[in-house]
Structure to design on (216 residues):
């Protein structure tokens, strides 16, 4: 699956996008991200799966697009 | 892209929108949000880099427009939001609402602006006069 980082989160991970496989749930993915990018633990962010905000531990597919979004500040 | 643009929102563009007011639209309301010269300590905001999750932003703006049209019964809503570098004084955000009467037009434009600021994944990176930058925190809407 594709994992995208935006705003300040992109600077913390040093990456705009990574490709990952074999994560079955959002919880598993979140644990992996926190382990590899510990700086994320201090940040407030939302997660979107296929462009929809998700606040539960849902199942993931390799074809999903996951995005980590800092609090919105547009307009 | 329909709503996000990476080039200037010009006066020519605004006049073209003004010309779209038809005989059934008694009211036409326009909002432009510009990059403001905010003072930060001894420095000021020189430009803003707008970053967007484009695929999701387009979908969210579309949903907001649809909802506003149903809720306020307005005739047409036009939204443009800049991405990339926007200099001090340039328009970053544009909303126009056409409606039969002004009352529903004002309600709709407030709704659209607030919802976009709340729900559309766009972030502001403020570049200051001393060339440092800061990611803007969300404002109250």
């Amino acid at each position: 699956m594709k994992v995208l980082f935006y705003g300040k989160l992109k600077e913390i991970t040093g990456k705009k996008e990574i490709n990952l496989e074999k994560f079955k749930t959002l919880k598993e993915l979140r644990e992996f991200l926190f382990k590899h990018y510990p700086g994320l633990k201090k940040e407030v962010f939302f997660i979107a799966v296929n462009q929809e905000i998700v606040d539960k531990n849902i199942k993931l597919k390799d074809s999903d697009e996951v995005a980590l979004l800092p609090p919105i500040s547009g307009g | 892209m329909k709503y996000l643009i990476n080039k200037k929102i010009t006066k020519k563009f605004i006049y073209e929108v003004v010309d779209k007011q038809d005989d059934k639209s008694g009211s036409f309301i326009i909002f432009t949000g510009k990059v403001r010269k905010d003072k930060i300590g001894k420095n000021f905001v020189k430009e803003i880099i707008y970053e967007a999750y484009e695929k999701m932003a387009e979908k969210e703006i579309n949903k907001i427009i649809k909802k506003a049209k149903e809720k306020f019964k307005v005739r047409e809503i036009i939204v443009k939001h800049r991405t990339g570098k926007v200099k001090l004084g340039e328009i970053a955000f544009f909303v126009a609402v056409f409606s039969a009467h002004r009352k529903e037009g004002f309600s709709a434009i407030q709704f659209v602006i607030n919802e976009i600021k709340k729900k559309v994944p766009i972030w502001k990176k403020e570049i200051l006069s001393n060339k440092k930058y800061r990611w803007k925190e969300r404002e109250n809407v």
